[in-house]
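Researcher: Let's try something more involved. This one mixes different molecule types, so please make sure each is placed in the same coordinate frame as the others.
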Amino acid sequence: MVRKRPARRPAPRTRRRPRAARVVSALLGIVWALAAGFPVYYMIITSLKTQAGFFNAPLGLPPRRPTLANYHRVIFSEGITHDFLNSVVVTLVSVAVALALSMLAAYVIVRVDRRWVRWTLNLFLLGLAVPIQAVIIPVFALVNSLHIYDTLWALILPSAGFAMPITVLILANFFRDIPRSLFEAMGLEGASHLTILRRLVLPLALPAMASIGIYDAVNVWNNFLFPLVLTQSQGVQVLPTALYQFQGQFGIEVPPLMAAVVLSAAPLLVLYAIARRSFLRALAGGFV
Amino acid sequence: MVKRVDTQTAVMAALPLAFYALFVIVPLGVAVALSFQTWNGLAPPTWAGLRQWRHLLSDTVVWGALGTTLRLMVYSWLLQTPISLALGVYLAGRERYRDLLAIVFFLPLMFSAVAIGLTWIYILDPSFGVATALARDLHLQPQSWLGQRWVLVTLSAVIAWEFIPFHTLLYQAAAQQIPTELYEAAEIDGAGLAGRFWRITLPQLRYTFVTSTLLILVGSLTYFDLILVMTQGGPGYRSTVLSIYMYNEAFPKLHMGYGSAIAVLLAVLGVVLSLVLLRVSGFTRMRSELEAG
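Model: All components are placed in one shared frame. Result:
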């Protein structure tokens, strides 16, 4: 055995790392890759199997003759496209509302020096600490009294509200890094806050807004509690509740269920495939 | 910073605040108010005084659910923290093959809790799941993974599968920021791999450690979707955490008043936990920085 390979320009972090440590860490990496990858592999190959093929190969071997029949069924007979579109609408509108309102709040928090503004910040921090489940009963009551129960608005408005705390905090942190002299220069020219926001802050903050917007979008897309409690009819069903319903409806017909699971994650998988690094940075939600 | 507040600024501040208050802050207050009422979700609520709270104190299920919540919290932390830390540090290394593995590492982030729960149910299914087939092939006793004995461990493991990639991202980003000179200096001092990990990597990652811990502990109060999909809180009340119990009381049974009392308990737990953790950590720096401006 060669004790010390003539390493071709070793990375600084791993220089002279003992062989045993390298083996252990590579092993860890491979074990987690298997653990993380297997369920995803399972979803995909199962979605391509027939029911009989599924029962014949429980160990998760790939089907000999893959079939798209499960996708065909879920899309054309079970109407998942409708749920998919509902999810798209709810996600896009919620995030647009959350971003617009959070931008205003973050601007005021950064630019206005008043005691009540500091209190505002505390309110947003409180929103980070409160579990969404803790307020679902009053949100249900509120949605009822606004007469929007069982509509897409019942999902959009609370989703936007609950996306605000993190969005405001991230944007406020970002706005604070904009040099003060830029604000002052525009202020001297007599620009109003709204003009400064539109002409100075917004162009600079676009990447940050896109990033936190994607983070919020994924949260809204995957949210299950709001549609579970605030809607009931098929017409306004979104993907997470559709999956939940399929679970009961399909029973042991696992292949079509897995096709629905794959479709429910398709937009995220596509985003991951085309822009992995920036997507992951966005998913870290400003904690990185 | 400006002190002057004109009409336009006032509107800019009022619009988001009013919206946020209506959908987040006011409901928090209403939850407290509803916990002193009896309400079935349809007829107007009626005053119940302390009845819900007296019921809560004497309800063994709620205390069991609190215990289950705390156990799940501890299991989650114990599983997620070391693995995420190790994977994050591992990925911060620069060999090419790690980049390839990283593509697989973060796949769980692409799926909703409902999708994850559904998939794992079938992987773990006692009659046709992969886990059972594998156990048979290895001549091991197949286990009922969602039964009385294993359910909390299994749920913690699936939850860990869901969240480890996120925490790995945090540790990876932080580990990449550690200046290599620190390692070079330690190497000159003769520190081995373990020494370098304990003396440099870990101290350098302490803020990430605190953030990640805070998110795991407070986040564990919100584990709901996955448990509802996988076990509905069962068998019996075995995996009934507070959020599941609150939901089961409030929505299927329409005990909205009692559900609100449990919800208040949940909210208090979340806020107290956050405050305690913020106090003992350096996380408050973020807030004071924001306030100082």
